[in-house]
Fold this protein.
Amino acid sequence: MNRKWLAWIVVPALLTFMYGCPKKKPKTPPPDLNVETTTVPAPAPSPPVRGTEIVATVTPPVEDKKEDPLLSSDLQVVNEELRRRGFSPDVYFDYDESTLSDDTRQKLSRNADLLKSQPQFSVTIEGHADSRGTNEYNLALGERRANAVKDYLASLGVAANRVRTISYGEERPVCTEDVESCWSQNRRAHMIITGRANVG
């Protein structure tokens, strides 16, 4: 009898010790905190400050240089201004020709007037040819074209000591496709102000 009574006391005590008391659940669930995370952007870097003056960082402009990069900036300005006034830097020739067409003579007449109005500048005339023919032949053809332009300018009153000629033949094409539309652009004389004339 005592053993049964002891078992009824010891067994529940042993079970309680082994598994512990069940935890009580809270009556109401904890409120949702609704925490939102936001990303704060980093502040833009401010320009350096000297005293009260703000120094802005300036990006240099990209220049599209159409003229010869070997020309000084003042000569580039002179060439641009002459073109603005109607100077034609290029005159064109027929295939294997160095004679001047009527259209070419009109352009050169305008060029001569502008050159005579600016006697302090010297001009270089470059002779060019298309890619057909040998290098030697095209160099000679380019020279004939440059000289034809020089002689015509001289006949219009541009002093010969202001004019220099050079031939590039086929070496400096403006268009490189083997079609007539490109070849016709390469058969040219190109005029450019390259320095100051020796006056006196």
